[in-house]
Amino acid sequence: MKHRLEISAGGVIYRRNAGAIDVCLILTQDGKAWQLPKGLIEEGEPAEVAAQREVAEETGLQGELVQPLDKIEYWYVWDGDEEPVRVHKFVHFYLFRYIDGSTEDHDDEVDDAVWLPMPEAEERLSFEGEQRVLRLAAEALERAHA
Predict the structure, then answer these.
(1) Engineering a disulfide at 9: which of 50, 55, 80, 102 sits with its beta carbon 3.0 to 4.6 angstroms away?
(2) Is pTM, for the whole model, over 0.90?
(3) DSSP assignment, residue 13?
(4) DSSP label at 110?
C-alpha cells in the first residue's frame, strides 16, 4: 500500500462563560465524529498561522493565540484515491482565546460547530489524542487563572 505524510495544525478555541470554560468542537464525517478544528499547513505557512486559519474556517470563530499545546501523531487509510493510501499524520495544536465570530459561519467542510462546556466537550470528542489535547488546554487555563 502506498503511504504519505501529512502535517496539519489546529486549535482549541475557548471562552469564559460565567466562571466556566466553553470550547468549540466541530462535527464531521456526516455527523459521526466530534473533533477539534484542524487542517493541512500550506507551503511556507507557520503552524500557528495555519491553526488560526483552520479554526476560523471550520468554526466561524476568530481567536487570539495563547500558546502551543501538543503535537499528536496517528495513522489512517484514505480511500479517496484510485487505491487506498496509508497516511501518517502529525497535527500541531494551539490554544486560542475567542475574540469574535459565530459558529453559524462555519464552512461547508464540517457538519456543525458548537460551543460546549469543557467537561462535556472532552467526553464528546471522538479521538483519544484530541481528548488529551483538550485536557492540556484545561490545565493551561487553570494555571493561567490561578
Answers:
(1) 50
(2) yes
(3) E
(4) S
Cα separation, 140 vs 146, whole angstroms:
10
DSSP summary character for residue 37: -
- Return the sign of the alpha-carbon dihedral for residues 76, 86, 136, 65: negative
Q: From CA 108, how far away is CA 71, in angstroms rounded?
A: 26
CA R_g for the chain: 15
Beta bridge partners of 71: 92
β-pair partners for 63: 98
With beta carbons less than 8 A apart as the criterion, state whether 109 and 98 touch.
no
* Cα–Cα distance measured from residue 41 to residue 9, given in angstroms and rounded to the nearest whole number: 6
**pLDDT tens sequence across 73-102:** 999 998 877 889 999 999 999 999 999 999
